[in-house]
Amino acid sequence: MSDFHLHVTSTLGLLLGVCLAAGVFADVFHLPKVTAYLLVGLLVGPSVLDWIPEDHVDGFEPVLEFAMAIVLFNLGCEFTFSKVRRIAAHCLALSAAEILLTCGLVTLGLKLFGYGSGTAILLGCLAVATAPATTILVLKEFRSEGPVTESTGFLVAVNNFACIVLFEFAFLLIHLFQGKLDVTIAGELQWLFSNLGTAFALGIAGGLIISYGCGLLKFSRWLVLLMATTTFLLGACESLHLPYMVTFLVMGVTVANTSDMKNKIVGELDHLSGLLAVVFFAVHGTHLDANAFIAAGGIGALYIVLRMAGKWLGVYGAARLTRQPLEVRHWLGTCLFAQAGAAIALSTIAANRDPELGKPIQDIILGSVVVFEIIGPLFIRKSLLRTGEVPLAQAISHTNRTPLEQVRAVVDRFRAAIHQDAAERTVANKVKVSDLLRKTNGIHQSANFEEVISHIEHSHDNTYPVVDERQRVVGVIRYPLLSNVMFDENATTLIRAEDLASETDSFLYPDEPAQRAFELFEAETDDCIPVVARTEPHELAGVVRRSDIMHALITQRRKTK
Questions:
Q1: What DSSP line would sit under 128-166, residue for residue?
Q2: Which keywords annotate this record (predicted)?
């Protein structure tokens, strides 16, 4: 028994087991599950309890890369060209300001505190990167929708691409000024653009293969095709030393614009992404090194503060200058704090290329990642709640029942056996309308047709509240009526939102039980109902969606079984 060594498969089983405990931990303390998985991975990893052998941690690297590839593919699938044009119109200024200010603040701050110019510049470039897996999977966990969620996905994609390009250019210029450049500048630039171009080409090829193959093959064979394409391209990128993040982001964008079955393709990958997310963050947590954070010391803390300040101030300043909504100004920047994969990979490249220059960079990145990966999901959760892009009930996980609640659950099941809808009514009464509220300002009654269309482009509903100067609901616009006038050019130049609005008697108050919403939806075809304040002048607070009511019912029913 003294020669007993834990096998790598047992290590995986141990990680999955402790993740079950992490899920309970997240429910009790109302944490994003991503943070819980990272914390439990850190706890059992080499830097704390050391239950996981270090060589096993390194052995899981292909799994982490595969999970990252799937996340980036999913992210790319969100960007059709029409959506990119629409988002880019208001996000490019935010992205440019955030990238420049983050890079500039970190570079100047570290330089003022005595770090060399080369190290400060490279850390400034790496500070731009935002962890795509952490950020996107937190958004998916909370089923968030809205301008902040949409803009976050765009900025994450731009940040990581910009980080790679800035890092390579910075390294080239630093070696040029230090006289360490072994080849010509033209040769280095040719190598950089060749790598990026090849990564783009592989992504386009992979996307076309998936779009064509999923249109040709039976649905039951799609997952095999997706797995084969992803793993082959991931291996090709590793063999050719290409930035695989670019490849899979481009692959997703290609599928989004060449396949009419994009949603089904993403849905098929969701069968894998749940388990991959658990493994990814648990294993990623074991990579986090608490000692590295301590070793980074004051410089590491300075890097953390400057990076967070750059991202928030960059977004806030640009959003204010371009007159974007308050939610975007105050909360978009805080959705970009998470940092891991790209920064770690590039810092490792820096250490391998030039140990004297790159080793201090690697130490600071590894130390700061411990903080960013833990607080990043917490800031995203807070931002989503404050902007109203996720219902409160979705963000709060309910703990297991007490013994008395279990007795009541038995009674409820007995009642359900006698009367079919008793369970739905009992469950729906446990949740308030305020728990399911999605905030919206509605459409002002004087808005012209173009403004109405702009609002609808940012919405996932088919019913849109129309409000007056006092934010009172004067009616709702329903998609069928809108579609009747959409192609009449003479009408669209004259019509205002109030002309398209229909009267509605369906209103909800925030303190009502969700059962009331359930009853209204049974009598309505609309997919959302306005929620208004009880007191005069009954201002619009937001809407409750049919899908959120059903999600709450399904979630609660599962807990009662």
A1: T---HHHHHHHHHHTT--SHHHHHHHHHHHHHHHHHHHH
A2: CBS domain, Membrane, Transmembrane, Transmembrane helix
Domain count, the chain: 2
385 lies in the same domain as 458 = no
- Beta-sheet pairing, 528-532 with 443-444: unpaired
Q: Are residues 509 and 368 in the same domain?
A: no
**CA distances for 121 relative to 21, 87, 168, 297, 353, angstroms:** 41, 30, 11, 19, 16
Residue range(s) defining the domain that contains residue 442: 423-560
Residues 188 and 83 occupy one common structural domain: yes
Residue-wise pLDDT tens digits, 393-448:
665 544 444 555 555 655 665 565 555 454 444 444 567 888 888 888 888 888 88
One domain, residues 133 and 191? yes
Q: Report the half-sphere exposure of 458 (CA within 13 A, side-chain side).
A: 20
Q: What angle do the packed helices 244-258 and 185-216 form, to 10 degrees?
A: 40
One domain, residues 428 and 487: yes
DSSP class per residue in 31-69? --HHHHHHHHHHHHSTTTT--S-HHHHHHTHHHHHHHHH
Q: How far apart are the first and last CA of the chain?
A: 43
What type of residue is 79?
F
Determine contact, residues 249/157, Cβ cutoff 8 Å: yes
pTM of the entire predicted model: 0.75
DSSP3 helix / strand / coil % (the chain, rounded to 5): 70, 5, 20
| Structure confidence at residue 485 (pLDDT) | 61
Tokens 């990979």 sit on residue: 345
The structure tokens 């980036």 sit at: 72
Given a cut of 70, the residues of the chain with pLDDT beneath it are 1-4, 392-430, 457-458, 460, 479-494, 553-561
pLDDT score recorded for residue 423: 46
Please name the residue that has the structure tokens 């209204």. 520
Q: Tokens representing 183?
A: 């080849």
